[in-house]
Give the backbone structure.
Amino acid sequence: MSPFDKELLERVLYRCSCGSRKPISSLYFCRHCLDLRCGFCVSHEVDSHYCPNCMENMPSAEARLKKNRCANCFDCPHCGHTLSTRASSVSVPSPDDPTKHIAKKVYYLACAFCRWTSREIGLPDQTVASGAWPEQNNPASERIATLQEHYRTIAQREKMEKESRRFLGRKLSYLHLSDKYGLSSVAARKRSGLSSLALGGGLAGTGREDMGRPLDIAPATAVNLNEINDLPTELLTDPIDLYNVTSLEQRFAQLEFQPESVDNIYPTHKHLMIKRSQRCRRCEHNLSKPEYNPTSIKFKIQLAAYYHVPELVIFKIDPMQIGTTSKFIIKVVNPTNSGSVLTFLTLQQYQAVREEEDRNRKDKGEEDKNVSAINPLRQPSIVEATDQRMDIATARVELPTSKVYLPPRDDAAEFDEGGVDLAGHVDDRDVVMWRKSNKVGVQLKVHPEQAEVLVGFAIQYEYTNTIFAHDSKKEVRTANITVPVFLKLGTIQQN
Ligand SMILES: [Zn+2]
Ligand SMILES: [Zn+2]
Ligand SMILES: [Zn+2]
Ligand SMILES: [Zn+2]
């Protein structure tokens, strides 16, 4: 089984602050709120655009201008694989002496996967490798450009009106709206039997600002069905050569043209990809920010929960039976560079801790701190999960009452022959089964009540916050963090 298998990842689930249950690999840990964040509780932002083939990156304005496609790289219109440029030589008459032939280098596009080449559709070979490949002209591009321009003007005007409304407190009325979108003038002309007029001209007389290029916004006119040609009868009589008919994927790859036969497919410009950064929705600090350079796989900021929250792994389960108590061992790994003390809480105890925290926060009047630090106008929010139930456990779990010391992570521990430094803590032999550097095997007991065995409890550990270490005024701060976890121990085979 692969370590990325969904089934395997979902054996151990952590409960995010929003209530959803996620494996540790899909969680973030906000060092500022000291809470878990999942994909729903972070805001995703586009950091940079880049081409996955030539690795060129570009600012978002340029990417928008290029319709999020790379100018130099192409996808195979037949299979979607990246096309590569091939060189070959052809003999052409020499410009000096037309009777002689000289070799000339030419380039064409070829797919290494399905062997499609640009020669198949009759694209002329190019003399430069970067290839100024002929582009197809979108038949509707003119119309789209006019519409875009028109709506941009509307958006601009709306923005201005919003700003003025903030001062005047004016309300929108139907008349106002219908006038703005030019509907009243179109309707009036329709009623009086005049052809719908270009909008720009129509509004010019009303004293409003000009709407840019004239635009025909009249609805499409009805067409008599009898005037439309039926499908060609050859479709019913002639056998179809499916090799020459494009598939739906091939057609949708070229939405503007939607070619029906394979000799009309054209190489498509490669889609750009993006690098994303994630921000905590509550405090708006970055939780994950990649390096700008597209070739780099490093991160400037990477607050994955995997580096901050103890990782639980189901290590060993004794045979289980309904109604009897069995032992199981979990491996707990401390990923941080500071030691910590781990306590196990039942979910009831967890609820009590949470309520206590909420009360404390309310007493201190920290409720209003919800306002964003970066943009005070914005009210950051956490989207709560619809399924926040805590009572999904199907088996009772007996938790150790003693605390377990978690030694800090030490990359040199592999080469250390000595035992684990417990920093003065004494292990409970009934709880701690084994230790190895920052890993510890903890024994728990389970009392299954159903065939599906799922236990739930909370881990509480001491987290050392290192962001304050740089600030000389503050000492390194520690905090107690409580995270509910759910372990899927397996299914009891009944026979
Ligand atoms: Zn969440
Ligand atoms: Zn490219
Ligand atoms: Zn191909
Ligand atoms: Zn935060």
About this structure: The CA atoms of residues 359 and 365 lie 10 Å apart. DSSP finds nine helices and 22 strands in the chain. The longest strand covers residues 477-491.
